[in-house]
TrEMBL record:
Protein name listed in UniProt: TIM-barrel domain-containing protein
Keywords: Glycosidase, Hydrolase
Residue ranges occupied by any Glycosyl hydrolase family 31 C-terminal domain in the UniProt entry: 554-639
Domain Glycoside hydrolase family 31 N-terminal, residue spans: 59-167
Domain Glycoside hydrolase family 31 TIM barrel: 211-549
Membrane-spanning intervals of the chain: none
Keyword Lipoprotein: no
Pfam family, one: Glyco_hydro_31_2nd
Listed InterPro entries: Gal_mutarotase_sf_dom (IPR011013), GH (IPR017853), Glyco_hydro_31_C (IPR048395), Glyco_hydro_31_N_dom (IPR025887), Glyco_hydro_31_TIM (IPR000322), Glyco_hydro_b (IPR013780), Glycosyl_Hydrolase_31 (IPR051816)
Gene3D superfamilies per record: Glycosidases, glycosyl hydrolase (family 31), Golgi alpha-mannosidase II
Family in the record: Belongs to the glycosyl hydrolase 31 family.
Keyword Transmembrane helix tagged: no
Length: 647
């Protein structure tokens, strides 16, 4: 008997088939189901699913299709309804709606019933400052700091991936849940049943697990906008060594090139990259270099890429996508993007990267502005090898990261990580480490970052970081900003990557683009702050073995309390604290002039406050001291983790 459900009415066809443990893939279209459209799902492992009449059972998930074509899903172990389709109107439109958009594509809607009290987590990284996203309308498109990953974990015991890279939106309203694709060929989503941790593991099974975090990546990353020369950067690394202050990574930011799209050094400022990388390696420091997808008409590669059809096209107008300062004039130039969805273009770019960076000993890259950052943001106007922008634009950042991953692996690198500003479903399997984009230097942005990081973790991206201190602004001589910097650094120590970056005062600009800023090293913030940062950096060093061990569990390092304690209802309400792995509860301070912090300790464990040694039973709120030099941290049960400073 076939392990697939099929329903037809007129030209409308719906299929449901098992796709991994406790999971199904649902597709619906007009006339046919297209088998090979762009998406995130990998081929499924075999599962012992069964079909009986109008129902399919796969482990803990049962799906049925009614006579009129409406789908409902239940948990087999509890009998609880997970979700069900619901029409918008008794006649038209139905739960699944196709409105012709030309060329065999449609504006598509998929509607589900809204359950009171349901909560949604994941869906990428957003700046709205909420963990539970019920009640939100979220665009399915990429922007600087707004990362669309159309995967959500529901409090009702399921996860859903909208397996469609089209531009659109998801509405998590009180009167219904609606997924919308502006231009697509069919509905395609994946559904799984289980507790939140099970859902995340199943999602990794079908979209690809992250590789192992490189050993070099878990220490401190030093960065700023920007080190303008080889000498300036080496002076910073040497000062770390002189102070015997641990440093793992230092970053060469943008504008180290002559022209966008050269993917090469400006030799006037960077005369000997191989010697620079060699000296850094001798100091135990990894050199990471910024690679942008933009291609200026002045670059050495523009004409060859244009003539070979390797640049992203447009549906209307010339194939240029942003204005950017490039060359000897302050007037911005119209620049193109390479087409990351074209394997030939990925080969071309990474061949150039290997020539100019790889042969200097550089093996890790910062893939900035990879949404891509079109200005204005008319992603609908893109025309890519994978399809029209409205249909596939959300693929772009993942395919850009894929290019780095596949070419580095082909060159023999076994540990691959790329720092990225945008991602899509499946980016994790290509070693994507997402950061929160160009956010402001404020306490509000710090509080937002806690929620953004946790939702990123619930989106299947286990490697995440922020610009410690925020990106836009921050005066190292301002006492108020120094307080923010310390509080943000405390949070950063308990993020998957610890990264110091930002465009500090005094700032320099050119044609509206920052080209240089003030100092951003730990010693830049004065003698009152430096000892605090030094202790935090050394704490991070002690935590690194634990960090790597926890990532090997298949769960993210930053975990909302609900992930470890799904049966504690109060744990689902906590948005301002999290677990760092299984055994550390971290409560960042995200408000100014704060000296105490209330923390909820989940039921089902005991918790030891690391600063006082006091042990508390779970299932209660406690208030602990949180002076500037302290972040509240609690050990779970009898965990043995080296939090205390070594004597």
């Amino acid at each position: 008997m076939s392990k697939q459900l099929t329903w037809r009415q007129g030209h409308h066809v719906l299929t449901v088939e098992p796709w991994g443990a406790d999971s199904v893939r649902v597709r619906a279209g007009l006339h046919r189901i297209e088998p090979d459209l762009p998406g995130a799902l990998l081929p499924p492992p075999a599962t012992p699913a069964t079909v009986d009449g109008a129902g399919l059972v796969n482990g803990r998930l049962r799906v049925e299709i009614s006579d009129d074509g409406l789908l409902t899903a239940w948990r087999t172990d509890t009998g609880a309804e997970l979700l069900r389709e619901e029409p918008a109107h008794f006649w038209w439109p139905g739960a699944r709606h196709f409105e012709a958009a030309g060329g065999g594509t449609y504006r598509i809607e998929q509607r589900f019933h809204a359950h009171d009290g349901e909560r949604f987590y994941g869906l990428g990284q957003h700046g709205h400052g909420r963990l539970d996203q019920k009640g939100m309308v979220l665009e399915l498109r990429q922007r600087n700091g707004e990362v669309s990953i159309p995967f959500t974990v529901s409090s009702r015991g399921y996860g859903l991936l909208w397996n469609n890279p089209a531009l659109g939106r998801v509405e998590l309203a009180a009167n219904g849940t609606r997924w919308v694709a502006d231009r697509a060929r069919q509905i395609d989503y994946w559904l799984t049943a289980g507790e939140p941790a099970d859902v995340l593991r199943r999602y990794a099974d079908v979209t690809g697990p992250a590789p192992e975090l490189p050993a070099w990546a878990s220490g401190l990353w030093q960065s700023k906008l920007r080190y303008t020369s080889q000498q300036e950067l080496l002076d910073v690394a040497r000062e770390y060594a002189r102070r015997d202050l641990p440093l793992s990574v230092i970053v060469v930011d943008y504008l180290h090139w002559k022209h966008l799209g050269d993917w090469d050094w400006d030799a006037a400022a960077w005369p000997d990259p191989r010697a620079m990388a060699g000296e850094l390696k001798a100091l135990g420091v990894e050199l990471v270099v910024s690679v942008w997808p933009s291609v200026s008409p002045l670059s050495a590669n523009y004409a060859a890429m244009r003539d070979a059809g390797l640049l992203a096209a447009t549906d209307h107008g010339p194939a240029v996508h942003a204005d950017w300062p490039d060359g000897p004039t302050d007037a911005p130039l119209a620049v193109a993007f390479y087409d990351a969805t074209d394997p030939r273009a990925r080969d071309f770019l990474w061949d150039r990267v290997h020539q100019h960076y790889g042969r200097a000993g550089i093996r890790a890259f910062w893939l900035d502005a990879c949404e891509p950052e079109t200005r204005p943001g008319h992603l609908h106007n893109l025309n890519l090898a994978a399809g029209p922008g409205a249909e596939v634009a959300n693929l772009y950042p993942r395919e850009h990261t894929r290019g780095a991953y596949e070419h580095l692996r082909a060159q023999g690198e076994t540990e691959v990580l790329s720092l990225v500003r945008s991602a899509w479903a499946g980016s994790q399997r290509y070693g994507a480490a997402l950061w929160s984009g160009d956010i402001p230097a404020t306490f509000d942005a710090l509080a937002m970052s806690v929620r953004a990081g946790l939702n990123t973790a619930m989106s299947g991206i286990p490697w995440w970081t922020t610009d410690i201190g925020g990106f836009h602004g921050g005066d190292p001589n301002d006492p108020d900003y120094r307080e923010l910097l310390v509080r943000w650094f405390q949070f950063g120590v308990f993020c998957p990557l610890l990264r110091l970056h930002g465009h500090r005062e005094p700032r320099a600009d050119r044609a509206g683009v920052g080209v240089g800023g003030g100092p951003n090293e730990p010693w830049s913030y004065g003698p009152g702050v430096y000892p605090i940062l030094e202790r935090l950096i050394r704490l991070r060093e002690r935590l690194r073995p634990y960090l790597h061990e926890q990532l090997r569990t298949g769960l993210p390092l930053m975990r909302p309390l609900l992930l470890e304690f799904p049966h504690d209802p109060a744990a689902w309400d906590v948005e301002d604290a999290f677990l760092f792995g299984r055994d550390l509860l971290v409560a960042p301070v995200t408000t100014p002039a704060t000296t105490h912090r209330e923390v909820y300790l989940p039921a089902g464990a005991t918790w030891t406050h690391t600063d006082t040694g006091t042990t508390f039973p779970g299932g209660r709120h406690v208030t602990v001291a949180a002076p500037l030099a302290q972040i509240p941290v609690f050990l779970r049960d009898n965990a043995q983790i080296p939090i205390a400073q070594e004597e």
